[in-house]
Structure formats: C-alpha cells, structure tokens
Amino acid sequence: TLCLGVDIKQLLLWPSSSILQTPDLPVISGGPTSDNSASRQDIQNQKETNQSCKEEREAALNINSQEPAAKHFIPTCTQAGLWEKEQCHQSTGYCWCVKDSGTPIPGTATYKVKPQCVFENDREMKGCPFEQKRKFLVDLLSDLAEERKKTLLEASNQTDTGPDDNLSLRETVARWKLKMLDTNNNGIFDRKEWRPFRRTNLKNKNYSRKCRRGFLRFCDKDGNQKITSEEWKDCLGLNQNNFNSLPLNPKRKGKNPLNLINYLNGD
Question: Main localization of the protein (predicted)?
C-alpha cells in the first residue's frame, strides 16, 4: 500500500508508553510529534481502495520519483502482481510479514533481515483465527512485560528490568509470570491456579473475547488440566519461534511498534 509505506515508517517511529528495551522488541525514540489522525485516515483510505500490490507499487514508484527525499515504502510483488509475504522498508531497514491483502501481521517485524513468514506449524486456537491469535499473543506478552517491570520496580526499586541472561525478554517474561502463578511451587500451572489469571490478565477487553476465553484450554495441550512450563511457552508462541527477532538499541524507548501496526488490521 502506498500509504501503508508512509504509515509503517511513522508507526515505527511514533513514541508510546510501555514495553521494555529488549533485543526482540525495539522501539525508536523520537519521531513525528503531529497528531496521527491524518495517518489513520490514510490507512482507512488504503483499505477502501484495496489496490493490488502491482498497482500500489507503481503508484509508490511514481510518487517516490517526485519526492525522492521522502523515501516512501515501495511494495515488493510477485511476478503475478501479488504481495510477497515479506515486505521491507528500504530506508529504515525494517521488514515484516503481510497477509495476501498486504496487511501487516503483528509480531513479525525484523531489522535489516527478512522475517520468517511461514507459519505452517502454528497450532490452531479454537475460535481465535490466526491473525487474531498473533495480535492477542503480542498484546498479552507486551502487557505481561509491563506488569513485570512495574512489579520489580515496586518490590525492590530495581532499575534493571531487562531480560535474564541468555534469554529473550519474551521468555524471561513468560518464566516470571509462570512463577508468579505457580502458588504451590510445584513447577506446574494447575487448574486451581487458573482463576486469578482469568480474573486479572484475561479480563482485558482489549483482547479478542474468544482468544482470551480459550487461551488456557489452548495452553493445556494434553487436556490434563495442568500446564507445564513447556506447554506455557508453547501456547505463548515461544517454542516455535513464532516471533521474529529485532536487535537491542540502547537508545530505544516506548512500546512495541508492531502493536501500533495493529491499526492496519482493523483491531
């Protein structure tokens, strides 16, 4: 999308609150300070036009020739004029996966490397379609990361809230939350321990209703009403490496830019 390119660039730059500085959740500090209502309108216009990749590439090339300094996003298309699964903004170095319509898929951003956009082994969550599931997991992990940061700061005035040694932030957060939920310290998230999680984290109405309601059953892969650490990691998408990785930049602040890209999914 022509405006998709401009908006992707701006969405990756807009500062926001929340998520930590991490190797796999970078956010650029600074960026446009103007109101984003115009960008939202551009996105809506893009959805309404629903141009093919070929049409939008031609339009982007035309505008880029008139405004080369603007460094617009140029879509990459197949020989048949369809959207390539991997799209990259050449001037920023960011790449992401897209659906057949060209709409970005949450949680797939990479930096200066093409993302992994094949999700054949992604386990189905009943009532929670693939795109909704990915958005739900991105948002849930983002919120859990913020919860962990707040808890550590309040408990011990600890300033280092980054990932544990040799772990990504996502896995660090997943392990921390499981430990908090495992009140009997048996290393397993038992059925009797599910209720507090349902009544707090999964009450967030910003999440898809069916995704949050079916999440714990999805985690309990073997249906024995006990969620092991491996099942917990699996249902959060960590065992399959379902989240692409982005490098650490110590100057980054703010929230995961892929959460902002959810505008483009209509969520």
Answer: secreted
What is the distance of C-alpha 234 from the center of its chain?
16
User: In 14-108, which ranges are continuous DSSP H helix?
Assistant: 37-49, 53-66
User: Which pLDDT belongs to residue 107?
Assistant: 75
Give me the long-range contacts of 184-187 (CB less than 8 A, separation at least 24).
Answer: 187/228, 187/229
pLDDT of residue 241: 57
What CATH number does residue 61 fall under? 4.10.800.10
Domain carrying residue 31: 2-119+246-265
pTM of the predicted model as reported, rounded to 2 decimal places: 0.64
- On whether both 78 and 145 belong to a single domain, the answer is no
Tell me how far apart the alpha carbons of residues 232 and 112 are, in angstroms, rounded to a whole number.
30
Question: What's the mean per-residue pLDDT of the chain?
Answer: 74
Contact 193, 184 (CB under 8 A): yes
Q: pLDDT digits over 111-146, tens only? A: 888 888 887 677 889 999 888 888 899 899 989 999
- Structure confidence by residue, pLDDT tens digits, 153-188: 888 766 666 777 778 888 899 999 999 999 999 999
10 Å CB burial of residue 155 (0-12, 13-18, 19+) is exposed
| Three-state SS at 83 | strand
Which letter does DSSP use for residue 105 in this model?
Answer: P
User: Picking from 33-37, 88-92, 112-116, 179-183, which range would have the lowest pLDDT averaged per residue?
Assistant: 33-37
- Say if 174 falls within a structural domain: yes
Among candidate residues 83, 111, 125, the one with its CA nearest the CA of residue 23 = 111
Residues 166 and 223 in one domain: yes
On whether residue 124 sits in a domain, the answer given is no
DSSP label of 52? -
Could you tell me if 75 and 142 lie in one domain? no
Place of tokens 């300094």: 69
